Every structure is written in C-alpha cells, then in structure tokens.
Automatic annotation (TrEMBL):
A Pfam cross-reference name: Lipase_GDSL
Lineage summary: Eukaryota, Fungi, Dikarya, Basidiomycota, Agaricomycotina
Record's keyword terms, sorted: Hydrolase, Signal
Signal peptide: 1-22
Keyword flag Coiled coil: no
This protein's name: Carbohydrate esterase family 16 protein
Origin: domain of life: Eukaryota
Length: 321
C-alpha cells in the first residue's frame, strides 16, 4: 500500500477517535467553573488582594458561570495541618456535594471545569514550616490530599480539572530572607532558614503532586487533567515585572501594597506601622501584603486560567489527559 494511503488511513482513524482520548478541553466547551482552595481563590475575602479575586475576573474574561467554594485560611485537611478555617476536605467538598445533591447547583459536567489551588497554609506558619499539630505529617501527605480532591470530584461526576500548583512562597515577603515582623508572624525567627526551607517545600511539593497526577491520569477514563504552573508564572512575574505589572509607581516585587511592620512579639491586634499604596500605584506591586498576591497579579492569573478554560495554547499549563 502506498505511503500516502497509509497516511490517509491514519488521519481518518485519528479523526474518528473518541474525544476522551484527546488531551485538554475543546475551544468553547467550558461554560462553568467550580473553585476550591484558600484565600488566594476565596471571592468573599477582598482583604486577600485588596480587590476582586482572580475567579471573578476569569468569570468576566471568559463569560463563565462561577461556582465558588474556596475559603480563606483553608488547608487541604485539618486532620493533617489544622487551622480553624473551612478545609477542602471536611468542609468545601461536603458543601459542594450537598448543593449538588439538592440541586442548588447542577452544572453540566462536560461543560464545567474544576480548579484547586491549595497548599499555602499547609506549608506555612503554624503548619509544616513551624511544626503542625500532627508531627508525623510531611509534604507527601498534604500533596497527596490535594490529589485526593481530584479523585473525589471525579467520583462525583466531574471530568475536567485544573490543578494549580504552589507559588514560590519563598518570594513572598513573609518567607523572604529580608522579612520583618508582620501581621502573620512577629515572633523571633531565622529568616534565611525560613526562606531556604520554604523554597524546598514548594518545589518538592509541586514535583510530588505532578508525579502523582501523572500516575493517576491514565486510570481515570474520560478525565481531562491540567497541571497549571503557578510557580513558574509567579517566578516569571518576579523576574520580569515589566511584562505583567502596569501601575503608576515604580515596579516593585519585594515590597507590597499594604505593608505593616510590627515590633518583635507585638500583638498583631495592634495597628502596626503600615504603608499603603493607593490608586493606580497598587498595580505596580506583585504582592498585596506579606503573603498574598496583588489584585494585578490576580488579573494575570485570571487571564492565564481563562485561556486554559477556553482550550487555548498556554505556556503555563500541561495537559496530562
């Protein structure tokens, strides 16, 4: 058989292959998205970035219907790293399943994508970095928990997923080597040690998660799983702010919009010595405060996630199935 005929047959078979064998979602397929996570994603917590959270922007950019379940302060599971806030497991997932069961929400699974951005509170102060209430818990368990979210959502009928990995937390002011006593931690610490340890936790956590997702993807028929490289995106924003920040003040990746310096061991209930950028100067900053991305950074996240949900090519995403 001539080689051209072989090529035609191969192309025909590829065209007839089930869509479930293709990687990623199709352009125009996604009309809804459901979000899980912490303050980075919680739309009801404007103090996280001083403005609108990225899912609100993404809903507008892509004309999507948003179903938000992320909660400020959340960890993946309070059984692993306890914090007195609604975790993904134990609160956010049960709330979603209850609303799905009673038909409060009923998005078509084929037209819906599910996102998870979690890990900041698991890795940080009062958790892995400083010692959690469960001393045997490691980065392995907390990232396995994040992957378990995907398994539970798949079992509930979800098929399209974006797993947003951990940002370079060592570049935030809280975990930098030049950090100061602030609203999140004003006790004594070795800032260099924290910076190095957090860099390793974030990088190791992301690699562990990716390996787990790569192993999981082939076992879930019809699933489309994206690994979104938040770490790479924020690293690029840090290194090349001129490509992302557009405020009227000098571009700034080492300070923040709302900076509050405290005396060592001062009560964080006090006001602190605060400096706050106003107006369009705010969009010159990568960080809103010592831990959270700025609203301009959130706009960038929204832009990139929207492209993924639209089925467009994007340098920050890897489709695993």
């Amino acid at each position: 058989m001539p080689r051209l005929q072989h090529l035609k047959i191969a192309c025909t078979l590829l065209a007839l292959a089930p869509l479930s064998l293709a990687k990623g979602v199709l352009p125009g397929q996604i009309k809804n998205f459901v979000t899980f996570g912490d303050s980075y994603t919680d739309i009801a917590y404007p103090a996280a970035d001083g403005g609108q959270a990225w899912p609100v922007y993404a809903a507008g950019y892509g004309n999507f219907t948003l179903y938000p379940f992320a909660k400020s302060g959340a960890t993946c599971s309070n059984n692993l790293t306890y914090r007195p806030f609604p975790p993904v497991f134990g609160s956010q997932i049960p709330t979603y399943l209850e609303e799905k069961s009673n038909a409060t929400i009923n998005p078509n699974p084929e037209e819906t994508i599910y996102t998870l951005w979690i890990g900041t509170n698991d890795l940080g102060v009062n958790a892995l970095l400083t010692g959690s209430d469960a001393p045997d818990v490691s980065i392995v368990q907390v990232r396995e928990c994040a992957v378990d979210w995907l398994k539970v959502m798949y079992a509930s009928g979800a098929r399209n997923f974006i797993m947003q990995n951990i940002i370079p937390l060592d570049l935030t002011i809280l975990y930098s080597n030049y950090s100061y006593p602030n609203r999140y931690w004003d006790a004594q610490r070795n800032t260099t040690e924290w910076n190095v340890y957090m860099r390793e936790l974030a990088k190791a956590g992301n690699e562990i998660t990716l390996l787990m997702l790569q192993a999981l993807a082939p076992t879930l028929p019809d699933a489309h799983i994206a690994s979104f490289d938040s770490h790479g995106l924020f690293t690029d924003m840090y290194n090349h702010p001129q490509n992302y920040l557009n405020g009227t003040a000098p571009l700034n990746v080492t300070g923040c919009v709302n900076s509050c310096i405290f005396a060592l061991n001062e009560s964080t209930g006090d006001a602190g010595d605060c400096t706050v950028a106003e107006g369009t100067d705010r969009d010159s900053f990568l960080w809103y405060d010592e831990l959270h991305p700025s609203e301009q950074s959130d706009r960038i996240v929204a832009r990139e996630i929207t492209a993924v949900m639209k089925g467009e090519e994007n340098q920050w995403v890897t489709w695993l199935s």
